[in-house]
C-alpha cells in the first residue's frame, strides 16, 4: 500500500478505482480501520479514484504519542491528497472521520463536496454520547478474549439483533478489526481528538455542497447532531435513516452507498 510521511508520521492508505477519475477521500471513525469503507469503495470504484487512509494510530499508519486533534488528522489527510497530486476531492467521513472531514473542508479549498455520516459539529449545543454508552464503548469486561472484547465494544454502535441477523458478517468484521483497527494507544489519542473537537462556530464558512446522513436510532452520536449540522453548514442536505444505528452505513450499506453515489453524481 502507498504511504506518505508528514511531520515524521507515516500515513498508510489504500487506492481503489481509476486513478484518472475524480478523487473520493474516505475518512473513518474512532479506532476503526479502513475496512469500514470496503463496501462504499467497491460501489464507487468504477467511476472514481477512492482513497482510504488509516488515521494516525490506526492499522499500518504510525501511532505517535497523543493526544491527537481533528485538525492534525485533517492535515494528514491533506498530505494523502498531496501524495496523489489531487487538485480536488470529494470527502466523506463517518463519526470521528466526519469531524476530520469538517476540519479539512475548512482548511483546504480542494474539498469539492462533503458527505458527513453519523457525526457532530461539537460545541456546547451538540448532543454528546450518553454516559452509559461512553462507558460501554471504552471498557470491555476484563475476562473477555480479543474477539469477545471487540463484539462487546461494538454493541452500542449496531442495532439490536444485528449480531443474530448477520453472524458471518460480524465474524468477518471482528477479523478485520483485529487486523486493522487502532492500537490501544492510538484509540486513546483519537478519543482525545473527538472530546476536544468543536467546529460549530466555523461551519458557516464551508462552501462545498454537503450531504448529511444519520441513523435516527444512533446511540453513540444521537441524530440531533445531524439536524444541528444541517443548520450550521450552508448548502447542506440531510437524509435520516429511520431506525439506523451508528454503523447504519454497514447495516444499510446498499441504501447508503446508493445515496452517496447519487449525491456524487450530482456534484462531481
Automatic annotation (TrEMBL):
Q: Where is the AB hydrolase-1 domain?
A: 22-251
Q: Which InterPro entries match?
A: AB_hydrolase, AB_hydrolase_1, AB_hydrolase_fold
Q: Which GO terms describe its molecular function?
A: hydrolase activity
Keyword list (alphabetical) reads:
Hydrolase
Q: What is this protein called?
A: Alpha/beta fold hydrolase
Give a Pfam family name: Abhydrolase_1
Amino acid at each position: 500500500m502507498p504511504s506518505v510521511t508528514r511531520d515524521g508520521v507515516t500515513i498508510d492508505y489504500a487506492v481503489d478505482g481509476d486513478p484518472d477519475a475524480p478523487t473520493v477521500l474516505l475518512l473513518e471513525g474512532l479506532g476503526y480501520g479502513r475496512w469500514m469503507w470496503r463496501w462504499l469503495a467497491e460501489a464507487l470504484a468504477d467511476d472514481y479514484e477512492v482513497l482510504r487512509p488509516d488515521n494516525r494510530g490506526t492499522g499500518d499508519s504510525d501511532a505517535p504519542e497523543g493526544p491527537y486533534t481533528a485538525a492534525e488528522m485533517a492535515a494528514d489527510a491533506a498530505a494523502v491528497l498531496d501524495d496523489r497530486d489531487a487538485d480536488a476531492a470529494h470527502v466523506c467521513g463517518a463519526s470521528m472521520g466526519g469531524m476530520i472531514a469538517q476540519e479539512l473542508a475548512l482548511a483546504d479549498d480542494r474539498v469539492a463536496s462533503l458527505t458527513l455520516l453519523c457525526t457532530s459539529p461539537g460545541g456546547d449545543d451538540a448532543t454528546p454520547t450518553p454516559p452509559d454508552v461512553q462507558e460501554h464503548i471504552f471498557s470491555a469486561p476484563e475476562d473477555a478474549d480479543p474477539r469477545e472484547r471487540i463484539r462487546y465494544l461494538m454493541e452500542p454502535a449496531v442495532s439490536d439483533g444485528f449480531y443474530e441477523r448477520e453472524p458471518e458478517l460480524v465474524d468477518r468484521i471482528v477479523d478485520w478489526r483485529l487486523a486493522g483497527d487502532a492500537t490501544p494507544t492510538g484509540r486513546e489519542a483519537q478519543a482525545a481528538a473527538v472530546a476536544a473537537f468543536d467546529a460549530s462556530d466555523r461551519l458557516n464558512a464551508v462552501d462545498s455542497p454537503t450531504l448529511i446522513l444519520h441513523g435516527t436510532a444512533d446511540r453513540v452520536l444521537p441524530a440531533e447532531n445531524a439536524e444541528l449540522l444541517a443548520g450550521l453548514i450552508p448548502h447542506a442536505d440531510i437524509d435520516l435513516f429511520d431506525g439506523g444505528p451508528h454503523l447504519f452505513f454497514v447495516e444499510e450499506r446498499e441504501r447508503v452507498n446508493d445515496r452517496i453515489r447519487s449525491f456524487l453524481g450530482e456534484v462531481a
